[in-house]
Specification:
20% strand, five-stranded antiparallel beta sheet, 450 residues
Amino acid sequence: MAVLIVSQAFTNFLKKSLLVRLGIDEGNREAIAVILRYLIVAFGVIFSIQEIGFNLASFAVVAGGLGVGIGFGIQDLTTNFVSGLTLLLDRPVKVGDFVELEGLMGIVKKISIRSTIIKTNDDSSVIVPNSNMISHKIVNWSYQNPLLCLRLPIEIAENSDPLLVTETLLSIAYAEAGVLSEPNPKVFFVEFGDDCFKFELLVWTDRPTDREVIKSSLNFAIEYHFRKQGINFPSNERDLYLRNPEFLLSLFDKKGTVTKPEMIIENNPKIPILSEGIKKPSSLSNLLREVKYFEHLTDLELRQLIEVGYRQRLRPQEFLFRENDAGDAFYMILSGSVEVFVEAIDKHLRNLGSGTFFGELSLMLGIPRTASVRALEETILFAINKEGFQKVLTERPDLYEQIIQEIAKHKEELSERQQELREMQLVDASEDDESPVEWVRKRLKNLFSV
């Protein structure tokens, strides 16, 4: 009894105090503590037996004789014990991991000599024999990566705009509190269905226990925003039964032409009357087309820009960037507003609101920021950074040429930018050229390796 008390107290001290100060994670702390407890108990029992004068050699002979018979009786216990040691030493699963075993999902709370305790999302504690943890297929969502990927299949009506679907799903994903912005959410056009388009939304979270809550929240948001954007789900064929068929017949003449269309609305108040003054909010693709360098891009090219972009949230008075910071991103304001000002002389330049954009030339030419930008209120931005823009140019070389052609239409502005960089000694001799267009072509190649 004393050995058990001492081993328990010592390993608790290790697990909750010493190993914590050493910075060892929860899974390793539990494994070290359990293995040391087994060793202390084993050596303590052997030492106690020797102290009372018991002959271990004769005990070994008796144990060997009984071992064969007892072995069959405690086979399961032995299997679970060995499996427990395997879990602790090999560590395919450790305390704190989020696992899935035969439909059971939860966090591993304890690995003992016989069993593993898993706490499910509904706060139930399930005791699983260690042999099941070894012999059955187990999904360890936390193995080498604490992030959990959620996949949401979505079917939409075949008359829907895939570009609008993509940007709507990405907007929903970035707005969800439980979804991480890095790795970026992704949208895949999986296949063409019989009467629908099949998409899949991939998001990542560091809150695996909230998996179902996050999926439910995303589903609610998808239904709401699809309805708001006029994106329809595929409708199943249904049989239609009319309560008053004689009323409908009275609305048609012998040729099948509707003679009294106003009666349909008057007698059916549930039929919505659409106002011509109601307009849908501008989509991200339409806003991007307002950028002069992107206005002639196809839907597929715009979709690539949308996918490599990300959302960024600013709190009131939070700076987006300051003067002389690297110009490595392009921004579009989705909601809220920002102030543009020269911080060095405390001069206000202008305020920018929803739907406006800035920084496109800074992104494409690597020009340092000439002013500071901070949020006036809670603001959400769509951003494309250098890495994302480089990915698009690498995958679509034709887009590179299109952008060159658009930039070439603004030679006066290019000359000013080129001169600014020359004055700041930021123009490399290998890319400098009297022709602003050729200078841009060389600079883009140097900046983005295209």
